[in-house]
Amino acid sequence: MTGRIAACRFGVIMLRIFWWTTLIATAALAASLITMLTSDWPATWANGWPGWAIAVAITIIVESIIFWIGIITVYITSVQLGIKIRVIGVLCGWIPIANLIALRLIIRTVSEEVRFESAKERLDRSRAAARICATRYPVLLVHGVFFRDTKALNYWGRIPAELQRNGAVIYYGNHQSAASVPDAARELTDRIRQIVQTTGCGKVNVIAHSKGGLDMRYAIARCGAAPYVASLTTINTPHRGCGFADYLLEKIPLATQKQVESAYNAAASHLGDKQPDFMAAVHDLTQAGCARLNAEIGDSNELSGSASIAGPFAGIVCQSVGSKLAHATTGKFPLNFTYPLVKWFDGPNDGLVAQPSFPWGEHFTWLEPNGTRGISHADMIDLNRENIPGFDVREFYVQIVAALKQRGL
């Protein structure tokens, strides 16, 4: 068990002790008070109240110490509490009855986190020797639009660490946050060549999310990356564009678009982008933009994964993944609020991209877990570090990479 999970477990134990000892002590003190009030009261009260008052004071002090140790511990160490439950705990902490309900929610949430992470730890220990993600070629993770690869905020959440723990060697695309598909593709091709030349690995297994999948397809088809790519797995990529994006560009005034573009490009430049191009990235994500790209680089109908297929994708294992969000409220900001709009235009979707746009390559995986939550565009990269019931995103990536290893890649 990791130190963080051990601390979470300790915090939960302290809160459970607080819960039960507070109930027992409160009942005992209440019974004592009733006894004093219903007995020969003047004498009993005069003789017993000092001791009762001292017992109350000691109980309050001891229970307060237990509570604050427990609550501070879980607030510091828990990932699954999130901002919402933490705020609920603070706001309800001063309201009788509501504070007990909030405390039960905190205990239940952190207890489930301890159970889940402990089981995950046991699983990883049991298969450590097998190194199931130790592929022949390293894994290159390619981010989507409007994000960058940074150590402070890992775009891929807990996924890289889980892959590395199971034997994978990980690299990142390190390309700009917003650029046209051709420009991003050229950056990624240079990055892949640098990795191959520096390490001598020969090729890379690419896992690309969202627009990153379009960037990599273009890199392979038009920029010379093909000889250095063993496989390409696209995750929730809009291969045929986002219909609601076309609609928004038609409805939003051009002046407003220019203002947003200018503000974004200025901010991105300060954060490290050399030539950010907000509107070029947006236009390449529309259905019209993707239709142009697909006419230039080919669509999935031309692919079968067979090495006998001619063209730049010959010999490259190509596959895709897509997921369905159940409701906008069951996902988390920021990549869920457009769900109703996408559903109106394109049908079942992940909050940004609709089902018809996902499939590409020789194999397509559609993720639609049981329950009312679903899986959002952001969930697929573990952006919120949330343990989703019925879907372990870290294990999903482990199995993707393990399958590549089994194919000799």
TrEMBL record:
Query: Protein transport among the record's keywords?
Result: no
List the InterPro entries hit by this protein, alphabetically: AB_hydrolase_fold (IPR029058)
Q: Which SUPFAM superfamilies match?
A: alpha/beta-Hydrolases
Gene3D superfamilies hit by this protein:
alpha/beta hydrolase
Keyword line: Membrane, Transmembrane, Transmembrane helix
Question: What transmembrane ranges does the database entry give?
Answer: 12-37, 49-75, 87-107
Q: What is this protein called?
A: Triacylglycerol lipase
Record the organism.
Answer: Bifidobacterium felsineum
